[in-house]
Specification:
Layout (H helix, E strand, L loop, with lengths): L29 H21 L12 E5 L5 H8 L3 H6 L17 E4 L2 H10 L5 E4 L8 H7 L3 E7 L2 H23 L3 H6 L8 E6 L42 H12 L3 E7 L4 H4 L10 E2 L2 E5 L3 H16 L8 E3 L6 H6 L4 E4 L1 H4 L15 H4 L2
Parallel strand pairs: 1-2, 1-10, 2-3, 3-4, 4-5, 5-6, 6-9
Antiparallel strand pairs: 7-8
Helix pairs in contact: 5-6
Length: 371
């Protein structure tokens, strides 16, 4: 099933899909599925409307990562394998008029390793998982090695964590090669649709300067001549005490030079709440004086974009080689207008989350819900 070409679906329809799970607890009720599909369609429509305000037209629409933490597997399955008849039967005026069929969502974000491990092995292998939560160094190997369908880790903020992910993905690659060599069909099948040679990583940057937030500071040397770190091509490997003054440069250089199983996808930030909750284009109460239809710039997003512009030449990379992951439910339209290549939306699609201790990956069956 593919989305209409005019629709801003940044994902490809899965090329190969196994049979849907038969566990009744994985099947959402029709009402819940319709609610999710309608919300997803609305977000995609808002993404499309935000793209023309970007500084320059992107080569592809921003990627939408649906933040499914603390939500049941049935919600994810409803969005990943949508039922076209549900939207066709709906008369909701909020749905985009050009949506002929609900596009399948591929990218989902999770914050907790154990929850992600369980979901990744329950749900289809065609889902592309993003780990977006606080990353513990002692969990990096397991995260990279054992999560099926892991597509990206977005909260890398230290060399130690990068090394753990490198080790885990290296073990994963060796395990896969051994399975193929030994003709272990079970292992190959488990990795179906997931033949990436490198794990994508984003370096988290603390653009707001808040102590409560993770991430490396955005500080960088004024020019490459001021940096003691080597460039991405590895022509120099000298280090000095000055290197520690710029942990962002040190970390990104380490990933490029010393982590052959990792791919530096770009930079990620979580903006200050006060800035993120300012009205966006949908409310049109906070706009740029020069263009009433353009949301006022978010300082955190501006800083991340500027940081990329300064970092790229220090790594001998083009700016386009470093993606920006910024923008969440309350500010994704502003982020897109400022050049974000990926937005992370959760509550706007899934609704309010339960307390962590009350969350369940598998819910009661559809029959029990209706009782």
């Amino acid at each position: 099933m593919s989305a209409p070409s005019s629709y801003p679906n940044p994902n490809q329809t899965p090329e190969t899909e196994s049979e849907p799970p038969t566990d009744p607890s994985m099947k959402p009720t029709p009402d819940r599925a319709l609610t999710l599909l309608s919300a997803h369609a609305s977000i995609l429509s808002r993404i499309r409307s935000s793209i023309p305000t970007s500084p320059s037209p992107p080569s592809s629409p921003p990627r939408l990562v649906l933040v499914s933490k603390l939500k049941p597997a049935s919600d994810i399955l409803a969005l990943h394998r949508p039922d076209p008849s549900l939207l066709q039967q709906s008369q909701s005026p909020s749905l985009p008029k050009d949506l002929d069929s609900p596009p399948p969502a591929l990218h989902f974000g999770e914050n907790y390793l154990q929850e992600l491990l369980q979901k990744s092995h329950l749900l289809p292998p065609t889902i592309k998982w993003h780990f977006i939560g606080g990353l513990q160094s002692n969990k990096c190997v397991q995260l990279a090695r054992d999560v099926r369908g892991l597509w990206a880790v977005e909260s890398v903020d230290s060399v130690k964590k990068a090394q753990g992910l490198e080790k885990g993905w290296g073990e994963r690659m060796r395990r896969r090669k051994e399975a193929k060599t030994n003709n272990e069909d079970g292992e190959e099948g488990a990795e179906e649709g997931e033949e990436e040679e490198k794990l994508r990583v984003f370096v988290q940057v603390n653009t707001s300067g808040e102590e409560s937030k993770s991430g490396v500071p955005p500080d960088l040397p004024a020019s490459s001549s001021d940096s003691s770190s080597s460039s991405a091509n590895g022509t120099s490997t000298s280090t000095s005490s000055a290197s520690s003054d710029f942990p962002l440069l040190t970390l990104t250089t380490h990933i490029l030079q010393s982590c052959p199983h990792l791919h530096l996808q770009g930079l990620m930030t979580i903006g200050a709440i006060a800035r993120s909750t300012q009205p966006s284009t949908s409310t049109s109460t906070s706009t740029s004086p020069s263009n009433p239809s353009t949301p006022s710039p978010n300082e955190d997003f501006t800083l991340l974009s500027t940081t990329r512009s300064r970092l790229a030449p220090l790594l001998n990379l083009a700016e386009a080689d470093l993606e920006l992951s910024m923008g969440m439910s309350s500010d994704f339209e502003t982020a897109i207008s400022q050049g974000s290549g990926e937005v992370r939306v959760g509550s706007t699609v899934f609704g309010e989350r339960p307390m962590r201790g009350e969350a369940r990956v598998l819910e009661s069956t559809a029959g029990e819900k209706g009782a």
